[in-house]
Design a protein that fits this description.
mainly alpha
């Protein structure tokens, strides 16, 4: 009685094993009713279900992991973006330096013009 259940369980799709295990207590009760010992089959069932659970856990973990090729491609894209950002930063710094020089020049020109307007005849 229990051996047919184990065979069916082994033939089942691994995703369906957890649902099938729900029937195990009824199988055990049937074995006990006909004066049998469910312990040997119970041990096999526990071993098999724990192996299936371990496999499903590993399968889930593997599906979450990214393939090394995809990681390498992403690293290449990121490296290009970093280089582009560094180039933009360098250009922005050059532009900032030019603007700061222009600003200093304008401030000096304003100072000079103020001095010219308030020449020696200005008493303020």
């Amino acid at each position: 009685m229990g051996s047919e259940y184990l065979v069916a369980l082994k033939k089942a799709d691994l995703d369906a094993v957890e649902a099938m295990i729900q029937d195990a207590p009824m199988i055990y009760k049937g074995i006990v009713r006909i004066c049998g010992d469910p312990t040997p089959r119970g041990k096999k069932l526990e071993d098999y279900t724990s192996a299936v659970a371990a496999y499903m856990s590993l399968k889930k973990a593997a599906s979450i992991c990214r393939h090394p090729t995809a990681i390498g491609q992403q690293k290449t894209v990121c490296a290009k973006e970093v280089k582009l950002s560094q180039s933009h930063l360098a250009m922005a710094r050059i532009e900032l330096d030019a603007l700061q020089k222009r600003h200093r020049s304008i401030v000096q020109r304003i100072s000079y013009l103020k001095g010219t307007l308030h020449g020696p005849w200005d008493v303020s």
